[in-house]
Every structure is written in C-alpha cells, then in structure tokens.
Amino acid sequence: MKAPSEVVLITGGSSxxxxxxxxxxxxxxxxxxGTARNPGKYKEFKDFPLLKLDVQKAESVQEVIAELIxxxxxxxxxxxxxxxxxxxxxxxxxxxxxxxxxxxxxxxxLRLIKEVLPHMRKQHSGFILNITSIAGYMGLPFRxxxxxxxxxxxxxxxxxxxxxxxxxxxxxxxxPGDYATNIASGRFHSPVRPDSPYLExxxxxxxxxxxxxxxxxxxxxxxxxxxxxxxxxxxxxHYTVGSPLQRFSLTLKRLLPxxxxxxxxxxxxxx
Length: 271
What we know:
- There is one protein chain.
- By secondary structure, this protein is α/β, with parallel strands linked by helices.
- The chain has a single domain, classed as Rossmann fold (3-Layer(aba) Sandwich), CATH 3.40.50.
- It is 48% helix and 14% strand.
- It contains nine helices and nine strands.
- It has helices at residues 16-27, 58-72, 95-123, 144-164, 183-186, 199-214, 220-230, 244-255, 258-268; strands at 7-10, 31-36, 50-52, 77-80, 86-87, 126-131, 169-176, 188-189, 238-241.
- The strands form two sheets. A seven-stranded parallel sheet has the order 3-2-1-4-6-7-9, with helices on both faces.
- β6, α4 (144-164) and β7 form a beta-alpha-beta unit.
- The longest helix is centred in the middle third of the chain and has 29 residues, at 95-123.
- The chain is globular, with a radius of gyration of 19 Å.
- The mean pLDDT is 92.
C-alpha cells in the first residue's frame, strides 16, 4: 500500500514565490494547499487548492488549519511565505503602515506556527519553513521596515528551533534575493512630500530597487531550493537563494567592519 504524501500548507500561494514553491512540491508528489485572502479572485487557478486566509486575523488562522485538518487529517509542512513589501524614508513612513508590515511578515507566521504546533506534536513530526529575505540580514536604506520584519523572523526561527527540538519538529528559514514577482505592484510606498528632504535620494533608491526586481530571474530557483531543504533530515538553521552577488553580499556583511560595509551600501544606492 502506497504511503500517503505529506500535506503542505503554503501561505500566500496564489502567485509569485508561493505559487512556484507549490508547483514544485506538487510535481514532487506532495499534497499541496495554498492560501489567499480572497480565493474567489483566482477562478482560473488550477495548480492546487487555495484556502481562505488572512494572516492578520487569529480567527482566520484557526479556521484555515481546522479546515485543512478536516480535509487531510494532518499537516506535515507549513511554509510561511505570505508577506508584504514596504519602502520609504524611515522618518516619513506612517506608523500604521509599519505595524501593518509587522502584522503580516512577523505576527502572521507566529500565528500560523502556534496553530499548527499542537498537531505536529501529536504526530511527533513536522517541518516549518519561514520564507524571509536577504534584505533581513541588513538594514537597507528606504527598506528599513521591511528589513526589520524579515530580520525578526530570522531570529524567531533560531529560538523556536531550539525549543521544538524535543518534539521532532524541524524549523528553518530560507532568505530569497530579488526575483521577478508581483511584489513591486503590491508594495506600500510611503508618500513623500514634494518638500521632503528625502525626495531625491528616495527616488533614486526606489528606481534601483524596482530595476533589480524587473531584471531578476523567475522564482524557479526558490521552488527547487525548498524541495531540497524539505528532504534534509537535519536542516541547517538558515538558507539563502539568489544571485551570486546577493549571496556574496552576506559574506561581506560577516567579514567586513560595519562602517566599510555601510560604505559599500551607500555607494550601491548612490547615497
């Protein structure tokens, strides 16, 4: 008798990186579910089932996990992928938008993790993969809030890993670089006043950020990387995937004195 395939839930699975991950895992034999805030908008979506989820609402999180357990009887893998982008001068970013970014990028995953852990403990197994960002390893100009949300999720992953070891539940993070997705169209841009002292510098940086995404490769490499990670019996704490230059920037971050690395970023963003 063939063993049942592992059940995967991918938040934000309707497009971009989440959809690509789901396609790769489904082709590899996993039972894949994605989520969207409004699955009814994706009537032509046939890749895998989409469940309704708003990661900012605890009740919605509870409902989606209950529905998945009712359908499949278990959850083996949670991939926290749903996220929002945000750019702008730190000083001029509305605090409400900063809170919104943290609610989605950090507190959303925390809600999902808390909801799936009782099921994984009962199963004596489980895998939680948090999708972060290479931007989470450094405070980038005009992306400081986004960097902070992803960096916080990296640290949460480290702490949770050690606490969950006794239960047989694995957890790690994967930090992608820039890939050609629709994140730019959905990103919040802080409104900059015409008399803003940041107007020129922010404009140049935003143009560079959008160009990086526009010129990037499709996110297939992320799907392949996730598949490799899930097959590891003892995964590392953190993984990255991206262009050689983006990954090399992390090596420089570790090796160089802070002020020298800062100077490299200033030159890169022409500040």
